[in-house]
Amino acid sequence: MEVEIKQAELVEQFVVLARSARGRAAAELITHATSHPSLFAFSELLSLPHILELQGTEHAGSLELLRLFAHGTWTEYKNNIHELPPLQPQQELKLKQLTVMTLAETAKVLQYDLLMQQLDVSNVRELEDLLINDCMYAGIVRGKLDQRRRCFEVQFAAGRDLRPGQLENMISTLATWLGNTENLLLTIQEKIKWADSMSDIDRKHKKEVEDKAEELRKSI
Amino acid sequence: EHSLLRQISSLVRRLPAIDSTKFQDDFL
Amino acid sequence: EEQVSIIREGLAELYENEEQWSKAAQMLSGIDLESGIRMLDDTYKLEKCVKISLLYLEDDDAINAETYIKKASFLVNNCKDEALNLQYKVCYARILDLKRKFLEAALRYYELSQLEKREVGGRRIDEDELQQALTAAVTCTILAAAGPQRSRVLATLYKDERCSKLKIYPILQKVYLERILRKPEVDAFSEELKPHQKALLPDNSTVLDRAMIEHNLLSASKLYTNISFEELGALLGIGPQKAEKIAARMISEDRMRGSIDQVEGVIHFENDIEELQQWDQQIVSICQALNDVLDSMVKKGM
């Protein structure tokens, strides 16, 4: 949420600029957006007509780059490097940060080996510096580093732009939550009823015992 | 509303809240 | 005795003009303030004690300065002179700073920075001076030993709006958020420090080094479940044995929770709370996030 609040103003600024930018200006805007240290959201830009118009032009590569930053990872960039514009260092870093966000979506525990491979990092110190300075301190993920088990335990990861097909999964997850919550509430209600009835029985039993004891005292 | 969708996307991935062996033992 | 006092005061003034601070202080300290012959009021005695203390401070003589400020502390409660009272407080704060009792100094500097009256004893206190006191408070807090007490003072300072306007604010923010401080940031901070704040300690590290290493160690404990001494040393910019020693000291002083496995060469950082409590906190956080989403939806008219 904090990441979203921080970047909301930025997104707005870039969208306003993009509304009047065409062709080369739009391509340059994409470069600025994908280099900005505090921006991790690109769907708003991707949905703008002037940006989509870049398709099939000499600046189509910039549009593809924007799509990559919206949904893709560092590995995907390397696999399509010849079809995409070269990245500046800030863009490389951002794409790696976005890759960490994507990996954090898939698992709660991320092994160092996987991270090093996916981020093209050769040693643990470099990996941990990236995770600490560029991910955790940037607020896009929260978690704990475990050197013994060589893994990063994710506690929180900011959301990336939605990929096609992701919406159904999200709806399905929320439906499952809803179902589990309703079942749990029913179970709790049943337990409350059971506790109440046991309490009633107990109270009646106590009264019977007291009444019998009183009778005996009177007869004696 | 892309911003909302991103927030929800982050939210739905937050469960299970903890997934470590130690937690599983304590929880059990 | 009256004439001797006058002569001593005159000589002290001359020494002061020559910037021979300790000599001036010694001259004044020869005045018998406990004389049975002269009736001296507490204000006069307090004034002398504070003056002597301030003079010794000019020569960075914390021991003698403290002796006289302690004498002054018995007299200050009866003093109605606001200017003198203020001088006493400033002097005490500086002595604590010089003696490296940084947390106590920070609290006193902070109190001074919150002075409401801008005119004391006919003298105007301007914003710059208050800002200086606030900066001194922040500096001393950062240099203080890392731990729960310092965290409380950091929170107070961080939440004080005035601090956001200070040059030193970025480092305050990082220290409060328990983030690792890198060498360029430490070097920049170092330039703002006084000599005694960069003094060499018996183990050949400086006051600043020790404060930064301990802070970074505590920051690391928030990021790692466990870490090898090799890697910890690399993170802190020191050797693994030194990293182990400092970690062991902080754990034994209860300023950090953890345990050391010397066989494996690893430090395990313990969380302050149990797994299940952590789970509870995570659930609370998720519920909060859910509420935030719902609020956002309402704001957008959904």
Short synopsis of the structure:
The complex is a heterotrimer of chains A (220), B (28) and C (302). By secondary structure, chain B is mostly helical.
Description of the structure:
The complex is a heterotrimer of chains A (220), B (28) and C (302). Chain A contains 10 helices and 3 strands; from the N terminus they run H-H-H-H-H-H-H-E-H-H-E-E-H. With 220 residues, chain A is mostly helical. The model of chain A has no long low-confidence stretch (mean pLDDT 94). Chain B starts with a helix and ends with a helix. Chain B is mainly alpha-helical. Chain B is built from 2 helices and no strands. Chain C contains 14 helices and 5 strands. In chain C, the strands form 2 sheets. Chain C has a 3-stranded antiparallel beta sheet. In chain C, strands 1-2 form a two-stranded antiparallel sheet. Chains in contact: A-B, A-C, B-C. Chain A binds chain B through residues 1, 4, 8, 11, 41, 43-44, 47, 104-105, 108-109, 153, 155-162, 166-167, 170, 173-174, 177, and chain B through 2-3, 5-16, 18-20.
Output the keywords.
heterotrimer, A: 220 residues, mainly alpha, three-stranded antiparallel sheet, 10 helices, 68% helix, B: 28 residues, 2 helices, rod-shaped
